[in-house]
């Protein structure tokens, strides 16, 4: 969290010097557009089954004050995990559903997949750094030959820190053999709110 704060302060300072009014903070951060960008990134960096479909539901006109790069990272990491889960599942339904809702205090983004889910005894470990359920070879030589998008053991852990940074959270509800729902809570920051770092 301290490292993220330092990087944010440096980035904010440099952005303001370069005549950006809000610095790194995007006054019109749109979760729908960021989700679309994350989907495009996942699709362009993988050789997974093209039958996987990404469906976005809910409100596509939400704009809030937030750090777009933080939200992009969170959604991208969760979508990568969902893509791998659906790909490894033998189920015919290859859909990943993303729902974006505007709450009173938070923007809620729900990402649902019907992969194999997470076992209950493993669930407390998913935010731990260097823990991974992937059995893929992620050595440098293998990655150069066959790019992988999961298995590095830090995606969910960093995503939770990024979401907690401004008072949000991530909650995982998973049923082994059925699938996984991940809720991303993004706290709304009002334009007149004082941000304490």
Verbal overview:
A five-stranded mixed beta sheet has the order 2-4-5-7-6, with helices on one face. Strands 1-3 form a two-stranded antiparallel ribbon. The chain has a single domain, classed as Heat Shock Protein 90, CATH 3.30.565.10. With 197 residues, it is an alpha+beta fold. Helix content is 35%, strand content 23%. It is built from five helices and seven strands. α2 crosses α3 and α3 packs antiparallel against α5. It is globular, with a radius of gyration of 17 Å.
Number of strands: 7
Beta fraction: 15-25%
Integer tally of domains:
1
User: Strand order within the widest sheet?
Assistant: 2-4-5-7-6
Number of helices: 5
**Helix share bin:** 25-40%
The CATH topology is what?
Heat Shock Protein 90
Structural class: alpha+beta
Q: Which whole number gives the mean pLDDT?
A: 81
Radius of gyration: 17 Å
How many strands, which pairing sense, and closed or not: the largest β-sheet?
5 strands, mixed
What string gives the helices and strands in order? HEHEEHEEHHEE
Under the CATH scheme, which architecture would be assigned? 2-Layer Sandwich
| End-to-end CA span | 10 Å
Shape from CA axes?
A: globular
Unreliably modeled segments: 137-147
Give the structure's gist in a few sentences.
By secondary structure, the protein is α+β, with helices and mostly antiparallel strands.
